[in-house]
Design a protein that fits this description.
Helix content: 40-55%
Distance between the termini: 45 Å
Shape: globular
Number of helices: 29
Strand content: 5-15%
Oligomer: single chain
Number of strands: 20
Largest sheet: 5 strands, mixed
Structural class: alpha/beta
Radius of gyration: 31 Å
Length: 780
């Protein structure tokens, strides 16, 4: 055919697709090519250097703080270093220096200031140069404190001792640097529900209820945020002026309470020939000098703003504040892992006035703060502990009831073994899956968080190992029932759950407090000998994280699959990250990581970014699309249909489906289209190819087959499904095969028939009237 000159030639250049900012990317660790000995020597050398640098940095830090007004310094560090901006669609940008500067750095600066008396400080206004030096010094100082411990690597250690040292460092680094175990609104709501029934205890001991304490610091957060937003709006109006004169007039008009006059500023600008850009810098710097005033308040002011009793507020402010010089006897080096500011985040200026640039510290350390308030009364503290245990169990039960509507659920089941009575916290049956949940509400001690190995190991026993052993005992009993259905009455009499319907047992431990993300990195404890190497440890989650997992994973199949696969990862994977990082990995991969799941150490850096963005937007009242698992529409519709049909063991079929990666779902879809064409064309031919089969890698045991049949072969559909399953189960490592059959004439969507076939002692007979084709191993 002749080519028209008007017809545009097709471009050979491919369109570049914009990369997904939340896409999973696996990269090689930069140290992986170095020997362990080379890395060890480099770290020891670095540690020696930091030992020398550390006291010099402390001295420089103290000198810089002493040279300026401390309140102004803390206010500027907190405002510029910790305050981000939120776009209209909910995207958040970090403060100055991004993740390199965080809340822990300002906490340290505040504590260093409180070591000195007010008279030790200069009254000089802060300067941009001094503030920049502090922004640089604080991260350097924090890094030097942790890095100088690298010299401990000089000592030879056994593998267990090396693992213990790793645990100590993980705990110390987390305690020193990591904040915010959940989002503020979720922390606030959770702890309010916890404390509401025992508010009278706090009133009696502390003079203020826990609920009012939470309301006070919530108000301080909102108060600071409102001030900063108004400040930005005022400054934006000023900085948009097109002349120096107009900028000065607008600036003083927006700030009528300034002590100096705009005439003086006009004179200064004229005499020094100040340009427009220079005036913008001057306005910002001048505005910063009065920034601290916004963070000063008294009980009377807060009472008028919140409606809370003034005496209660006064009591709260007094109990949670420190004055200048109060930390003079505190060892400076101890401030990094035992900072009194964590328990008392306010600065007391005089008998009535207080300063707080970081109300968020209260929510970061809310559990130790509440415990500290009650420690003067052992009886009250014990009532609080009892309430924590009751609340955690009821909260978990409510989460599961909401996550799995209509499930069979039973709290507090008591059962006996060897004349000893055990009590389970919660049993949840969803179809053929039984979830055994154990709850631990223990507080985490400061000694453990500072890396004390004895205390940390005790917490591992109490919070992680004991509930896992308890759920394993019961799981073994239930598995005994699964093996012998007639043994129900002898093994687990009077069980409130329909065990005759259970085929799979899942275990989960849930805690109240964050143990420095130890819950999600239990492999370290096994390496240290703190957990028996052959013990199948139950996955452990914070109750606040469990709530977010159930919120993000909206479908029942995904919730069950996540809990199941979390247990798998706990048994044979090594990774570094918290629960939301794991959830982010699941959204991208479904935990379908191929054989690398078994022999790779994963650092899940930033995997929670899409989840963080979603909840950060909600914190600002902005609703955006909720992140969800990466799954094809066909796969999603199959899962939805089998859940809706609610046939027995539908959840087993769903688990097999969700063990297929997104990429392999696409491959199956493409190959099934080819099979469909072949069946339409060759259905009359005996042994025609009618199915595509995915055989898992050697460490997975579930295969999946998708089969096409025509209406005229309707009567042979079951026979052919059995034949495809029999062929597939001939693979030695395959124990189950999910067969999905589609009537390609009727157009049933997303499928016509579905069945799970299990391998028996002798596999199903091979009926050679329909063959599987397109057998492939999933993309690894």
């Amino acid at each position: 055919m002749p080519i028209s000159k008007r017809r545009p030639k097709k471009s050979l250049r491919r369109k570049r697709s914009r990369p997904d900012p939340h896409e999973t990317v696996f990269i090689e660790h930069p140290f992986s090519s170095l020997s362990r000995e080379d890395v060890r020597k480099a770290l020891i050398e670095s540690g020696k250097n930091k030992v020398i640098e550390f006291p010099k940095l402390i001295e420089e830090m103290q000198s810089n703080l002493r040279s300026k007004d401390p309140l102004s310094t803390i206010a500027i560090l907190a405002t510029y270093g910790l305050t981000g901006t939120v776009s209209h669609d909910g995207e958040m940008t970090s403060g100055y220096k991004g993740e390199a500067f965080n809340q822990s750095h300002v906490e340290l600066a505040q504590a260093l200031c409180l070591q000195m008396a007010k008279s030790d400080f200069s009254s000089a206004s802060t300067s941009p140069d001094t503030i920049q030096q502090l922004f640089d010094l604080l991260p350097d100082l924090s890094h030097a404190f942790s890095a100088k411990r690298f010299i401990e690597l000089e000592n030879e250690r056994s593998e267990e001792d090396q693992a213990t040292l790793s645990i100590q460092e993980e705990l110390r680094l987390h305690t020193q640097m990591v904040r915010n175990w959940s989002f503020v609104s979720r922390v606030r709501d959770l702890v309010k529900r916890l404390c509401a029934p025992i508010d009278d205890l706090f009133v009696r001991i502390a003079g203020v209820s826990a609920s009012n304490l939470i309301d006070i610091f919530t108000h301080l957060l909102q108060r600071n945020e409102s001030f900063l937003n108004n400040r930005i709006e005022r400054l934006s109006t000023v900085l948009r002026k097109s002349s120096v004169t107009g900028m000065i007039d607008a600036y003083y008009e927006a700030n009528p309470n300034f002590e100096d006059s705009k005439e003086g500023m006009h004179t200064f600008a004229t005499v020094n020939g100040i340009s427009l850009n220079e005036m913008k810098s001057i306005v910002l710097s001048h505005s910063d000098q009065s920034l601290c005033d916004a963070y000063v308040f008294d009980a009377k002011t807060l009472a008028a703003e919140t409606g809370i009793n003034e005496a209660s507020i006064a009591s709260a402010l007094h109990l949670l504040s420190l004055g200048f010089g109060d930390l003079k006897d505190k060892e400076t080096e101890h401030l990094f892992l035992d900072n009194p500011v964590w328990i008392k985040p306010l600065i007391r200026l005089d008998a009535d006035q207080y300063f707080c640039a970081m109300p968020q510290v209260f929510f970061s350390f809310i559990f130790p703060i509440l415990t500290n308030l009650l420690e003067v009364d052992k009886s009250a503290l014990e009532k609080y502990r009892v309430r924590r245990a009751e609340f955690l169990e009821s909260e978990i039960c409510a989460l599961f009831e909401k996550a799995f509507p209509g499930c069979e659920i039973a709290p507090g089941y008591k059962w006996k073994m060897d004349d000893k009575v055990y009590e389970n916290d919660l049993l949840v049956r969803v179809d053929s899956h039984l979830i055994i949940v154990e709850a631990k509400s223990h507080s985490i001690s400061w000694k453990a968080l500072r890396g004390d190995p004895k205390r940390a190991r005790r917490h591992v026993d109490e919070i992680l190992l004991d509930p896992s052993l308890q759920s394993l005992r019961l799981a073994n009993r239930v598995n005994g029932v699964i093996s012998d259905r007639d043994a129900i009455d002898s093994l687990l009499p009077s069980c409130p759950i329909s065990l005759e319907l259970v085929n799979t047992v899942l275990r989960l431990s849930v805690t109240m407090e964050d143990f420095a993300t130890f819950q999600t990195t239990l492999h370290h404890a096994k390496s240290a000998g703190w957990i028996p190497p052959d013990h199948p440890i139950a996955p452990c989650m914070l109750v606040s994280d469990l709530a977010m997992v159930f919120d993000i994973l909206e479908s029942t199949p995904h919730k069950i699959h996540y809990i199941k696969r979390r247990a798998d990862l706990e048994s044979h994977s090594r990774y570094k990250g918290d629960e939301l990082d794991l959830l982010g990995l699941y959204l991208q991969t479904g935990f379908n990581l191929g054989e690398s799941e078994y022999d790779t150490t994963f650092t899940l850096l930033g995997m929670s970014s899409s989840i963080d963005s979603y909840y950060n937007a909600l914190e600002q009242g902005i609703r955006r699309k909720k992140p969800g698992p990466k799954i094809t529409q066909w796969w999603r519709d199959i899962c939805t249909k089998i859940e809706r049909r609610n046939f027995h063991q539908w959840s087993d079929a769903a688990n097999i489906l969700l063990n297929v990666s997104h990429e392999d779902q696409e491959t199956l879809k493409a190959k099934f289209k080819q099979i469909t064409k072949n069946v339409h064309k060759n259905w009359r031919i005996p042994n025609h190819n009618c199915a595509v089969v995915m055989i898992p890698h050697k460490r997975r045991t579930d295969a999946i087959a998708i089969m096409a049949f025509k209406q005229r072969d309707y009567d042979k559909r079951y026979q052919r499904m059995e034949n495809v399953a029999a062929d597939t189960l001939e693979s030695l490592h395959v124990d189950r095969c999910l067969v999905i059959a589609n009537n390609i004439d009727e157009g049933h969507y997303p499928y016509s028939l579905i069945s799970v076939f299990k391998k028996r002692v002798s596999t199903l007979p091979s009926l050679r009237e329909g063959n599987a084709d397109g057998i492939f191993t999933p993309n690894l």
